[in-house]
Amino acid sequence: MKQTVLVIDFGSQYTQNIARRIREQGVFSEIKPHTVTADEVKKISPSAIILSGGPSSVWDEGAPSLDAAIIESGVPVLGVCYGMQLLVRMLGGEVEHSDGREFGPAEIEILDGGGLFSGIRSPAAVWMSHGDRVVRLPEGFVATARTASAPVAAVRHEKRKIFGTQFHPEVAHTPGGGEMLSNFLFNIAGCEKSWTPEAFIESVVASVKERVGSSRVICALSGGVDSSVTAALVREAVGSALVCIFVDTGLLRLGEGDDVVRMFSESGIEVKRVNEEERFLGKLKGVSDPEEKRKIIGREFIAVFEREAKSIEGAEFLAQGTLYPDVIESASVPGAAVTIKTHHNVGGLPERMNLKLIEPLRELFKDEVRRVGRALLIPEVLLNRHPFPGPGLAIRILGEISAEALDMLKRADAIYIDEIRKAGLYDKIWQAFAVFLPVRTVGVMGDNRTYDNVIALRAVTSTDGMTADWAKIPPEVLEKTSTRIINEVRGIGRVVYDISTKPPGTIEWE
Fold first, then answer.
1. 3-state secondary structure of 167
2. Are 73 and 37 in contact (CB under 8 A)?
3. Taking the mean position of all CA atoms in its chain, how far away is CA 463?
4. 210 is catalytic
5. CA distance 239 to 149
6. Residues 6+ apart with CB under 8 A from 244
7. Paired residues of 271 in beta bridges
8. Exactly one of 34, 157, 168, 386 is catalytic; which is it?
């Protein structure tokens, strides 16, 4: 059993950040809801436990709590923000509402230079997000840091390995946060650096090989990072028993279908390409609502995939590129976020076709998938490709989809990406793409009045896609892109640039 740090989630927007920061230190982490029981924790046998922050106050009616036996298990515990306040209250201390709320950057004075703060200089910059504060510590606890408005900004037990921080060490706005987490993981909890791409590959390949035996495996290939790494991992385990099905919906980027087939054929992986552009455009005719588009594309994709999969003799397993955030977000836990938009995958196929599901990436975050891909020698051009939505360009054409609009968008998007690559910006941007808007605008070309379509350009910087800022692309690059699109794509008369952040906007427009 691999060494695990358990992150218990109390609803913080930063919970995934905690898990990712731990993994960056070379230690495996797993997220569980605060409803997890002591018996369930015992089965996991974690080396350490971290209690996340959360939007609640410990004074709120129905505020999330924790099985007290977890704290008493003897496993090292670190409470963050709400997690610290909950620890203090459960162990007999006192927390009160405070007029001196702290949201954003703050400075802590370190009172105890050992433990979490070993090697950290005082004062230290941190990121706060709290309205309550600790006013009386439980027996056996001491304050290890304070701020001007919070006399208890961090705590530790004098004898037991129980620690707490009022601030968030897991965010980039706490510069020394990584070192604090490292102190907790290695100096306090005694963890070892065993979570590496190579160790992951070895474990997954052995597991898949044992499970599949002599059966055949089919994989839904999109050409994106997730499905590509899934295919490469399964190929390592079962060799030629893997067959990839590539359903070309016609909603991919310009020339992408050809690129996908060529790349995988060159690597020796069998790819069965199915061209279904006419079918998908026909089903989408007259549809403007983005959720309806997603449902139609998902339904038709499954129908086509099912038809093709049935023709592969001896196939008993379906490989799918499910990631850890998908697993977390699909779990039914109290306080789950509302659905912003549905996801497109091959959901439901295993049951319908009596296939057994293989999800080799279900423990990984996106950045870890890329690291595994590099260890598998997948070309960088594929691994560094910007994220692309399952429904494809259907949700980048606002309103009704037509073959003409799709063609204009493909060509405009290709020009945009080409100019970003030429400027050396592609790998510095999380995601960049063009959007076709359902409006027409007056313009002048030569001596003639035009009434043409509008393209919006979107580019964001991010670490994980959970939050994002608009990319500060130099004006001269945007100018050249706009000029080329208007000159080279007939029917486009205006180009605009989206400077919205996430939140409040999303990265995609639909």
1. coil
2. no
3. 9
4. no
5. 61
6. 218, 219, 220, 221, 231, 264, 269, 270, 271, 272
7. 244
8. 168
**Residue 22 token pair:** 């731990």
Give me the residue label for tokens 């964001």: 460
Q: Which two tokens stand for residue 304?
A: 């086509």
Task: Tell me, yes or no, if 168 is annotated catalytic.
Answer: yes
**From 81, 191, 219, 244, the catalytic residue:** 81
The better pLDDT of the pair 392, 104 is held by 392
- Cα separation, 262 vs 266, in Å, equals 6
Q: Which residues pair with 163 in a beta bridge?
A: 78, 156
* Whole-number Å distance between alpha carbons of 65 and 89: 10
| Given 170, 308, 363, 510, the catalytic residue | 170
* pLDDT tens digits, one per residue of 188-197: 999 999 999 9
How confident is the model over 229-265, as pLDDT tens digits? 999 999 999 999 999 999 999 999 999 889 888 888 8
Tokens of residue 113, six digits = 């230079």
Spatial neighbors of 492 by CB under 8 A, at least 6 apart, are: 408, 412, 452, 453, 454, 455, 485, 486
Q: Name the pTM for this structure.
A: 0.78
Question: Residue 177's Cα: distance from chain center in Å?
Answer: 21
